[in-house]
Every structure is written in C-alpha cells, then in structure tokens.
What we know:
Layout: E1 3-6, H1 10-22, E2 27-29, H2 37-41, H3 72-85, E3 96-102, E4 105-110, E5 114-117, E6 119-122, E7 129-130, E8 144-147, E9 161-165, H4 169-180, E10 184-188, E11 195-197, E12 199-200, E13 203-204, H5 205-213, H6 217-235, H7 247-254, E14 259-261, H8 264-269, E15 273-276, E16 279-282, E17 286-289, E18 294-296, E19 299-302, E20 306-307, E21 340-342, H9 352-370
Parallel strand pairs: 1-2, 1-6, 6-21, 8-19, 9-10, 9-19, 10-15, 11-14
Antiparallel strand pairs: 3-4, 4-5, 7-20, 12-13, 16-17, 17-18
Helix pairs in contact: 1-9
Keywords: Oxidoreductase
Pfam families: Pyr_redox_3
InterPro entries: Auxin_biosynth/cation_transpt (IPR050982), FAD/NAD-bd_sf (IPR036188), Flavin_mOase (IPR000960), NAD(P)-bd_dom_sf (IPR036291)
Amino acid sequence: xxxxxxxxxxxxxxxxxxxxKAGIPFEILEKTDSVGSAWRNxxxxxxxxxxxxxxxxxxxxxxxxxxxxxxxxxxxxxxxQYADYFNIKxxxxxxxxxxxxxxxxxxxxxxxxxxxxxNVLIATGxxxxxxxxxxxxxxxxxxxxxxxxxxxxxxxxxxxxxxxxGYGNSxxxxxxxxxxxxxxxxxxxxxxxxxxxxxxxxRSTQSLAIFFIRFGNTVYDFIAxxxxxxxxxxxxxxxxxxxxxxxxEQLRTLGKVAVIDVGTLAQIKAGxxxxxxxxxxxxxxxxxxxxxKKLPVDAIVMATGYHARLEEIVTDIAPILNERGxxxxxxxxxxxxxxxxxxxxxxxxxxxxxxxxLSSEKIVSHILKGK
Length: 371
C-alpha cells in the first residue's frame, strides 16, 4: 500500500482527512475499538485548554454552538463526525508491535497481521505510555494508588484524603475535581512550575501566544515574563514552587508545558486544596514528605505524565529522537528513514491541536511531492 497511518486519535485523523481530501489512498491502524480512544478515557470534567478557533481538525470546523473551550464529550462527538465525514474507517484492534525498513518498504507488524507500505505515518502521540514512578515504601501502602489515566471523577473519593502527585495540567485539574466532589484534596509538587491563565481580558491565552510568537523568542519571552508577574502575586503564600524561567523558555529548554489554570489556584488560595512538597516515603496509611510532615491518605493519584516510547515500536529509531524521546523532525532525508513520518509529537507554545493541523498539511504536501 502507499500510506499506512498508525493511530486514530486527532493526529492520525488529521493526516487521514487531508489524504482523503487530496484523493490519496491510505489505511489507518488503531489499537483500540474506536477513534479518539485516549480522549474517551480521559477524566470526565476535561475541556480543551485551547481555543476552539485554533483546535479543529483539517477541513471541518467545529459546530457553531460549541463553546470556546470544548468539553470532552462534545470533542468526542466531533471526532466521530470527522471520521464519518471523511469516510475514515480504521482497522481496529491492531496494536502495532514493530516497524522496520525492508528495502523500499516499511514493514509494520501487529499481534496477528503484517502490513507493508511505502510511507508510514506514526501518530501514536507523546502520551502513549503512562509514567508510573515507584514511590519509596509503596509496597507498604494499604490505600489505592492509580495513574491519572485511570481517574474518571471524584465521586468515589468523597470525604476521603486524596493526594495528587504532580502539578501539570491533569494534576491541577484533578485536584480541583476532587475538591468539588467533596474530597479533601492535597497536591505534591516536586519541581518548579509555571502557571498561566486560560484567558486574559476576554481573550484566550492561546490567541495571545499566536500573536506574539511572530515577533520571535526574545520578544515572546519578554511578554511572557510580564504576564508572569501577575501570576507571582497570585501564588504568594500557596507553597507552589515557581520556575525562574518564563513559560516559553521552560517549554523550549525543558519540554515542560505551563499549567493552564482553570480554577485550582483560587481553591489553593482559599485553603480548600493543600500544596505539599515532594514525597519521602509511604507507610501503610500515611505519606511522609521531604519536610518531615505526615499526612494520612486514603488514595494517591499519580499525575506524573506519559512517555512516547517510540523506541519500543520502531527499529533503530534512537538516532532521530531527542533527549525526551520525541522525534527531532516530522520526517528525515536519510535513506534509512525515508518514508517515515511523525505527527503529534511537537509541544508548541501555540497549542498542540493547532500544530497537528499545520503539521499534517506539511506532511501531506511532502508526500505529494514524492509521488
């Protein structure tokens, strides 16, 4: 076959939609039984943190009645509509186990089938495998420990002490959800973070980022530091460690996205969510922190992020991955990687879904040039 897409999330669907629009044949493999499976499994209260104006997939705008920040269920409905609109019919339950180059073709293996294609477009995402660090003393702990990928809502935790480990976007929002569900929420923050508001004076923070990035990193960093001063005042007395870097610098140098605040900070300020430092050790029913404080805990939610783990799938891929395990580019000119494409692995200042849209256009254009 000409083109084989791996993954039927927003990234894979974006490429598929563009290929369909251009009349280019393709097949798409999906390890689960539905498109957008990661979105279906996210926690219930999730909304897009990016403006709908910049978050649609190629060639199909969101319905006009969708809000600026789209809730999970509406986004899933849109993904389903997108697959129907472009007649995208993935081959489901095909988890890819190996991808390797053989002559001029790429050989893709699943548990029960083998595919060959001129071009392979990997759209498995940077959140394919949960990061699940083992806490010291974890074997002694009698309470529940889950990764954030398994968290749905706070209802089971009402009137319980729950510690969220990690203060990225998921961790911050899960802590808020726990509090609003009647749990006593705590959040352990080990590393310094940056926090930005989702909106500023009626405009999405994303739209401001898109405007200022055109002036280059120096100007963008300067503007980001000005906005950061507002946040520094807001976090005083909360115990949240703030990065010395501007949000834009932090993303470029460390690959760490700023936390887009959707109300968690206000509840921390109000004393309804408690910030704790890094964990030293677990006992059977307590968490002991680096500062010596002890906390009885019923459950722990590990909001510790994900790995792409492309090296587990693609043979000899290490030379084209960066230090965080993501592809250094969308495609490569070396013969050994010719025909291999990556979409959905960038972490841009201006929004992941917007970047997926733009990247898919570049990839399909490159494929057309090679025909």
